[in-house]
Amino acid sequence: MKPAAEGERWFEAAFRADYLRVYPHRNVEAARREVDFLVSQGVRGRVLDLCCGFGRHALLLRRAGLDVWGVDLSFDLLRAARELDGYERLLAGRLVRGDAQRVPFGSGRFDGIVNLFSSFGYFGERGDERVLAEIVRVLVPGGIAVFDLMNATRVRAELVPHSRRSEADFVLDERRALLDDGRRVVKDVELDFADGRTLRWREDVRLYSRSEFDALLARHGLFNVATFGDFDASVCGERSPRTIVVARRR
Questions:
Q1: Burial level of 146, CB count in 10 A (0-12/13-18/19+)?
Q2: Coil, strand, or helix at residue 176?
Q3: Which residues contact residue 155 at a Cβ distance below 8 angstroms, ignoring those fewer than 6 apart?
Q4: N or C: less crowded end of the chain, CB within 10 Å?
Q5: How high is the pLDDT of residue 23?
Q6: Three-state helix/strand/coil letters over 65-120
Q7: Same domain assignment for residues 104 and 146
Q8: Is residue 55 within 8 Å of residue 28, measured between CB atoms?
Q9: Euclidean distance between the first and final Cα of the chain, in Å?
Q10: Are 199 and 129 part of one and the same domain?
């Protein structure tokens, strides 16, 4: 993992090869309940995993019989997908490098789109609008889009300003703050490795309240079918771990 280059966007610095070592719990096994939930909500047919990372959800969706494709910006994470058990049989050639603001597929190609693990809110409000416009473009009329967002109310109420984790080969230091009257959450990350390398970046994610996000969807021809508080289909409340939105293209 190299130091962040000048002009590099934070998510380009964050999602490099060492990401999987620093966050090993974000693995295929942890994705199983999320995929079960997606299928239960009607995600089927030809599906795009937008911001797919190293393809853990895409792999399980393929095993569930869906015609899945994935897009991610990180070369390192896409390369790591080759280590998944079943990659050659199920995913080879189906994971594509691309920007969520310019999805590299034709219009009306997908019956469903999933955008998981807080992957929405990275580009500023105008950029987020472009992402939604692309989602609508590549969805068929009546297609389903599922968004896995941070619960803005809980983040604002329970933000942990500082945490530090020490492992055998690295120390992870994270400092968090709310900006713009709580509309953005930022996290200053420092990774110090035992071999002397250091990586620093600032994550910056727009927090959308439920009403804000519903209005944003509506402006792009999507309507909220259901909102859940986690992948167990629980009711979304102020203390819910997540905000899971199931939307449909008009």
A1: buried
A2: strand
A3: 178, 185, 207
A4: C
A5: 83
A6: CCEEEEEECCHHHHHHHHHCCCHHHHHCCCEEECECCECCCCCCCEEEEEECCCCC
A7: yes
A8: no
A9: 43
A10: no
**Listed residues 203, 218, 239: the one ending a domain:** 203
Q: What is the CATH number of the domain that holds 168?
A: 2.20.25
Sheet holding 184-193, edge to edge: 162-166, 170-179, 184-193, 198-206
Measured in whole angstroms, the distance separating CA 144 from the mean position of its chain's CA atoms is 16
What pLDDT digit, counting tens, does each position of 138-161 carry?
A: 999 999 999 999 999 999 999 999
Q: pLDDT-based confidence at 5, cuts 50/70/90? A: low
Is 132 within the bounds of a domain? yes
Q: How far is CA 166 from CA 2, 52, 171, in A?
A: 20, 28, 4
| Domain-located, residue 190 | yes
**Number of H-type helices and E-type strands within the chain:** 8, 11
Q: Does 77 reside within a domain?
A: yes
The answer to whether 211 and 205 are in contact (CB under 8 A) is no
* Residue numbers of the domain that contains 188: 155-203
Contacts of 99 (CB under 8 A, 6+ apart): 73
Residues 224 and 178 in one domain: no
Same domain, 108 and 215: yes
pLDDT band at residue 2 using 50, 70 and 90 as cut-offs = very low
